[in-house]
Amino acid sequence: MRRIILLMSIGVVAMFLSSCLTVEKKQYTFELNGKGAGKLTIKYINIMSNVDSAGYTEVKDFEELLTSYVIGTKVEDAYPDAKVSGKRLFEENGVLCGEVIVDFPTLEAGRLYQFDSKSPVMFYTSSVDGETFVESNGTYGGEKMPVVMFATKMKTLTITTSISKPSDESYVSLLGEYKKSKK
Prior knowledge:
Helix content is about 25%, strand content about 40%. The chain is of the alpha+beta class. The protein has one domain (about 20-180). The strands form two sheets. Strands 1, 2, 3, 4, 6, 9 and 10 form a seven-stranded antiparallel sheet that branches.
């Protein structure tokens, strides 16, 4: 019994330590249709690997990016009440970027909130792990109230967050691995 628990514990730890993927910035663009539904486009700018002492490489992280996010269901799992209608990787301005399109039937499924039809639509930025607010076309409540509020008449909502600084030498761009995969 102890062996089983030990093996399961090792497996869980290995699963959490297996990937060191990060991005420099994320751009969220919500396009609302006026009925509480809409489309969310998330653009991941400068997808990178965190080089660490455990020996994880950009090759392994690029494989993880493909198998878990592009081909796999990590994005679908993050938005269980919405439909992912597109995923792609591409090069832009000399860095690897990714894009995910999510169609949501309700504001809640798109991770938005509105108390009633007269209240602003809101996005809670602290629910996004490790991200720091950068800018938006809405009004940011600040660090003590990390909510972006959008006027009820707005149909396109944008939010940009930052995660990792590419100048930090512990990060390596995955653009090279992407280019190799395209050959």
